TrEMBL record, chains A, B:
Keywords: DNA-binding, Transcription, Transcription regulation. It holds the Pfam family LacI. Residues 3-57 form the HTH lacI-type domain. SUPFAM superfamilies: lambda repressor-like DNA-binding domains, Periplasmic binding protein-like I. The lineage of its organism: Bacteria, Bacillati, Bacillota, Bacilli, Bacillales. This is LacI family transcriptional regulator. Gene3D superfamilies: 3.40.50.2300, lambda repressor-like DNA-binding domains. It comes from the Bacteria. It comes from Paenibacillus helianthi.
Length: 334, 334
DNA sequence: CAATAAAACGTAAACGTTTACCCTAAAGGT
DNA sequence: ACCTTTAGGGTAAACGTTTACGTTTTATTG
């Protein structure tokens, strides 16, 4: 058995209340007793028991984080940021990998509730009614990252997806492109799907380019789907001079496919991605992309959540600035 | 306040002991009372409090995982596997990002102890004496993944690094290469450094190829260092027909550098990596590499740890089989 | 039907803390 | 010298469970 506060009290010849007081450095003890207690603590190698502590003050100093897929580069960057701030604030983070599966998600939510986490970060997955209801019944703060919800009141941190791709397309146009194809993510995705194709269409429209549905093809954000989409584009819309993909993974899939077809990038076709994962710098040629600062977003989400936990007030939404990072996959048309 | 077991007891007109019994389905109650209790539970939306539970039975159903860098593809694949098994066994996992910093690591260890985790997975970082001592004083199971320690008794799961690169080099030799350069990871790393260059040297030796120190250059496992290393090789050992890198990231860095120098891969130079991260399939040409099944390793580590927690006996070491996955970066020399 | 065994259930202690409340003794004021 | 204040510190309840032990009720046996 590890020593408890009782052992410390005994060894220092004081009551456990006093030990507790010096531990939490409150007032109510002399300097001498403080010395004695600290001495006893050191000698016994005493460590407070956070569980007992948690039971009484109803705070576990733990937050839960839900990801559709922990091992994606996307999630893990976010996680890194979340963990950073959390640990600095003396919170632990427990991760849950939902696999985008409703049943699993509900089970994890259950688990987090039983474990009495102080707050939850919900990432990259839409917060539907079912989730929202249990979250609400848990009566703990929640923040969404890279996600939104129709149920107001739950703060999010994300970039403006619509605007980001609007800007990206405009960038492509400014480089002289007019025949621009898009590889969208999952069609029905209300955060990374719809708004992004909206941005695409509106940007085109704003430059007087008419939308051509044969240039819009859907993937599911994955590398493989990006490759397939590229094949489709090459088949159906071979005149396109540029393709914008709604994720870096898809963009890289598209890049591979293009290269495999003997096309040179960016000479024969320009490709632009979305996210700015580490991957983007690693491929050849390095990918031009729109950057979401994932690590920072994680940090901010974590910060908001912890503030909510500790102050009780409800956080505001935060739109994070995106930016275009120019590398070598888009060419200027002359 | 969320309802407690007491509320349930009251509503069902039984004692809390009885409620607890049906909750943990032990014996000692009739079917009717079981119904009553379950009814009350449902009506109140009662959820057990795992903290209180943890306090009394000294089990938190939580494991801690230490990574040098959570956001690396390497760690996150591991984490995925760990999380999978853990959650299936009703354990939660709390992540710690040590940044390879001793101070941080110690702080996290402290934290995990206070939080009373039931076990710890220690990943990709050597378990030095300092860490070992606190771990030992915590008296909870630990398993190492992709790591080792001099202090016996702590089980590990990893591939045989020496053998893996031995096989890789042999593979290269079987493809007709004799002038093989190597980009090693951190020189002093006792698990992913030294053994791997040993494998390289021995494999060369076994085929009667004399080791040439100008063909061995050191990086730090990162993409950038791979690029720099490749430059060095091109400068110092330009006759090399193949280069083996001790990580996929470095291999891809080397690939980029080679491509940038106008070399064709694999026509002008062959490149082989180590890890088989998702990245390896994404680059062009796709990387030939030696595969460590990270996800499975995570799962197995998790399984071992949980078995140790629940049975109390100490797990055995596990050497995971590696394999060579042939893609398109090595050419057969004729 | 009495005796006994077994089933059903309740009581209370325990887990390791925090904290409200109480007590004592010394210090300060008159 | 007496009263009041305050610093220092102790006692015990509380947090939400589990579980050993005891008690009552029911079923079983002869």
């Amino acid at each position: 058995m590890n020593p408890t506060i009782k052992d410390v009290a005994q060894k220092a010849n004081v009551s456990i209340a006093t030990v507790s007081r010096v531990l939490n450095n409150l007032t109510g003890y002399s300097d001498k007793t403080k010395q004695k207690v600290n001495q006893a603590i050191k000698e016994l190698g005493y460590q407070p028991n956070a569980i007992a502590r948690g039971l009484i003050n109803k705070r576990t100093q733990t937050i839960g984080v839900m990801f559709p897929n922990v091992s994606s580069a996307f999630s893990s960057d976010l996680l890194h940021g979340i963990d950073e701030f959390a640990h600095d604030s003396n919170y632990s983070v427990v991760v849950c990998n939902t696999d985008n599966d409703g049943k699993r998600t509900m089970k994890y939510l259950q688990l987090l509730r039983e474990k009495q986490v102080d707050g939850i970060i919900f990432s990259s997955e839409v917060l539907n009614k079912e989730y929202y209801e249990v979250l609400e019944s848990m009566k703990i703060p929640v923040v969404l990252v890279s996600s939104k919800t129709d149920f107001a009141k739950v703060p999010y941190v994300k970039v403006d997806d619509y605007q980001a791709v609007y800007d990206a397309i405009q960038y492509l146009i400014s480089k002289g492109h007019r025949k621009i194809a898009m590889i969208s993510g999952t069609k029905s995705d209300p955060i990374a799907g719809t708004p992004r194709v909206q941005g695409y269409r509106k940007a085109l429209e704003a430059s007087g380019i008419t939308f051509d549905s044969s240039r819009l093809v859907y993937g599911d954000f994955s590398f493989e789907s990006g490759g397939r989409a590229m094949e489709a584009i090459l088949r159906k819309a071979g005149e396109a001079t540029a393709v914008f993909a709604a994720s870096d993974e898809m963009a890289i899939g598209a890049l591979s496919a293009a290269l495999k077809h003997g096309l040179n990038v960016p000479e024969d076709i320009s490709i632009m991605g979305y996210d700015d994962l580490k991957l983007a710098q690693m491929v050849t040629p390095p990918l031009t992309t729109v950057r979401q600062p994932l690590y920072e977003m994680g940090k901010i989400a974590s910060e908001k959540l912890i503030r909510m936990i500790e102050t009780g007030d409800i956080a505001t939404n935060k739109i994070i600035a995106h930016s275009i990072v120019e590398r070598q996959t888009v060419r200027t048309l002359t």
